[in-house]
Amino acid sequence: LLECGGNLFDAISIAVKAALFNTRIPKVQVSEDEEGFKEIELSDDPYDCIRLNVDEVPCIVTLSKIGYRHVVDATLQEEACSLASLLISVTSKGALTSLKKVGKGSLDPESIFEMMETGKRVGKALHTALQKVLDEEESLGSSRQKVGFLG
């Protein structure tokens, strides 16, 4: 990412959504005894857990304005030609949750609307592809290959 270009915000948003998708929260029960003392009981079963719903977690798409056009996920050379970029946060249903302009240049309203529409379309496709990969990874279960120091 740092050597070959690419946008840090985009990569982090994908990583955060994937991490939240894999998060498991153990089930906890609170019981009360006869004297009114409360006791917290944590399930010993690692599969007895609650999963987080990540359907509405947005991903960020970066569009860079170059001349009268815009580029998604600009290369290093394209970034050098761009004076302004727009970070668009998009949910899986295509709803925009935030916009942020970065760079010294300006964006006219017409190009902002075009970039928003492109960001929606790309964002929905990104969510679809990410969810497909996450579902494939989930279907492997414990048979998936462990990589790295956590394996």
UniProtKB/TrEMBL annotation:
Compartments reported by the entry: Cytoplasm; Nucleus, Nucleolus
Keywords per UniProt: Cytoplasm, Exosome, rRNA processing
InterPro entries cross-referenced by the UniProt entry: ExoRNase_PH_dom2 (IPR015847), ExoRNase_PH_dom2_sf (IPR036345), Exosome_comp_Rrp42_subfam (IPR050590), PNPase/RNase_PH_dom_sf (IPR027408), Ribosomal_Su5_D2-typ_SF (IPR020568)
Gene Ontology biological process terms in this record: exonucleolytic trimming to generate mature 3'-end of 5.8S rRNA from tricistronic rRNA transcript (SSU-rRNA, 5.8S rRNA, LSU-rRNA); nuclear mRNA surveillance; nuclear polyadenylation-dependent rRNA catabolic process; rRNA catabolic process; TRAMP-dependent tRNA surveillance pathway; U1 snRNA 3'-end processing; U4 snRNA 3'-end processing; U5 snRNA 3'-end processing
Highest taxon, organism lineage: Eukaryota
Cross-referenced Pfam families: RNase_PH_C (PF03725)
Main location: cytoplasm
Record-annotated Exoribonuclease phosphorolytic domain positions: 57-121
GO molecular function: mRNA 3'-UTR AU-rich region binding
Cellular component per GO, a single term: cytoplasmic exosome (RNase complex)
PANTHER family associated with the record: EXOSOME COMPLEX COMPONENT RRP42 (PTHR11097:SF8), EXOSOME COMPLEX EXONUCLEASE RIBOSOMAL RNA PROCESSING PROTEIN (PTHR11097)
Similarity remark: Belongs to the RNase PH family.
Protein name (database record): Ribosomal RNA-processing protein 42
